[in-house]
Structure to design on (176 residues):
């Protein structure tokens, strides 16, 4: 597994458990790249869905991927504060082309006041049956939902007060 180079653009590829592509983010600038951690920034990037539809992100975002955790976190910078979208997913890999992970349907949306909602539990249950998620994956994901909620409540990692601002400032240096 390679290491993404800081300042370089990469793609982000999301897959489903059955191996089918789910979503592709066209361009994200690497702000930190190591074997265990990738932090990226993007703004108004093209996103392609599995059915070929495309859309453009509306605001700057800082993306956090870790090789040890079964989630990734996107901090979206809006006028009224930072909103987080957390995907329960496999740990990432980087193959020289893109950060890649398996999306496991469950999501947590976090609001600027740090309240949050667990989303898509019905979609998770349906896909768990349809794609035969192994019991061990189900257990890992449930533990990682708990870990993510702990991080939110404790303001750890990307939820720390200055995290998104600091990385957004770094992102802006690459855009100039």
């Amino acid at each position: 597994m390679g290491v993404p180079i800081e300042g370089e653009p990469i793609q982000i590829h999301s897959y489903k458990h059955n191996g089918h592509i789910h979503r592709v983010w066209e361009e994200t600038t690497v702000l930190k790249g190591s074997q265990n951690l990738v932090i990226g920034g993007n703004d108004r990037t093209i996103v392609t869905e599995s059915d070929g539809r495309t859309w453009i992100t509306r605001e700057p975002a800082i993306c956090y991927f870790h090789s040890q955790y079964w989630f990734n976190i996107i901090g979206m910078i809006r006028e009224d504060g930072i909103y987080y979208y957390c995907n329960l997913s496999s740990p990432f890999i980087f193959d020289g082309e893109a950060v890649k992970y398996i999306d496991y349907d469950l999501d947590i949306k976090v609001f600027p006041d740090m309240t949050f909602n667990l989303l898509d539990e019905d979609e998770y249950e349906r896909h768990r049956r349809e794609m035969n998620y192994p019991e061990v994956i189900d257990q890992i994901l449930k533990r990682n939902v708990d870990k993510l909620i702990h991080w939110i409540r404790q303001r750890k990692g990307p939820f720390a007060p200055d995290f998104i601002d600091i990385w957004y400032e770094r992102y802006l240096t690459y855009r100039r």
Notes: The longest strand covers residues 21-33. The first helix runs from residue 121 to 130.
